[in-house]
Specification:
Chains A, B, C, D: Residues 1-26 are annotated as: Disordered. The structure is a homotetramer of 108-residue chains. Chain A is mainly α and 108 residues long. Chain A has three helices and no strands. Chain A has helices at 23-48, 53-88, 92-106.
């Protein structure tokens, strides 16, 4: 397992997207995440009910797919907005390096 | 995206592990899932606060790693208990076929 | 990147499968690997011809899928033959631990 | 398995990178691919010698890591050169859409 590799990329608690997310955008992403949260709670119930291991694993894999898809949406928005704008303004290098790192991290 | 492939494996709502999970086992898994649920709620807050895209993606990737690890624990328990017992009792074929499918599903 | 993690699993140069591969089995796997070798040579030609980056990446991803499928076949054979026999003979523990490690390694 | 999904992205046999690869760049990539080709031939010998399944799987996983790394290098070069230039010249949209598809394809 290589979770510790995530520290290769610095977190930036005060940083915002170059183009702020609209309220509607936020709502869409949050709704997807709420569904995922519900799926994780569903998993807990499956364990509580001592459901068959394979069924739980299939459910975990569905949640992973949902997280991955949400991640791709964010990645696409980031590339089209933040990275593209940085490139246009001549600051692309740093943003592309960071993008490559996050893609590697994300596709592990 | 290939989530629809999950239907290759049937769900078995009434099926239980061959060896029931002890209360302590259940508790351990549920605790891990509760932490993951908390992380998913944390993601929602990050989106609400319009946090930087890359930070959100790193956090998604941490949740994916946590889910994967939980899945591996369940997979190991399933193999050591359900699959191994089925093999000893001469019903291994079906269990191993199912195991291979779930591994493929899980490592997508 | 985490290739160094592969050292978690020991190599066993003198070890054989518990049930030897038949000549036909060997031939089938080797044929798949020869096709993959040909695809890797094809990649070199694409680079030499200065083909478009995305086309090369698609081709790399096709080779990865072919390798993954070959790996799954070997994994299935290993589980049905080596692991299942070890379980029947009461030596399952070690084989299942090793299987779990190789699955983790393989699905990274 | 989802290899057929690769057809989502069109191949462009006549298309070149926006900035041609230098001879040195080509040589470096080809050398990496030659090493991978050698590893695939090594796999064939392992099968021929009836080597232990797990050892072969570890070796497959090492080849996958090498291919993945080569892919990342190409992806990075593509993003820094082709995509960034297209963005600067106002044709970024198409290139970023294609980039997102290839990342999804590649991280499956």
């Amino acid at each position: 397992m290589c979770e510790h590799h995530s520290i290769d990329i610095d977190m930036h608690p005060e940083k915002k997207p170059r183009t702020p997310r609209s309220e509607q955008e936020k709502k869409q992403i949050i709704n997807r995440l709420k569904r995922i949260e519900g799926q994780v709670r569903g998993l807990q119930k499956m364990v509580q009910d001592d459901r068959y291991c394979v069924d739980i694993l299939i459910q975990i894999s569905a949640i992973q797919a949902a997280l991955k898809n949400t991640g791709y949406s964010l990645l696409e928005r980031h590339t089209k907005s933040c990275v593209a704008n940085a490139v246009k303004e001549g600051e692309g290098e740093h943003y592309i390096d960071e993008l490559m790192k996050v893609i590697q991290q994300f596709s592990k």
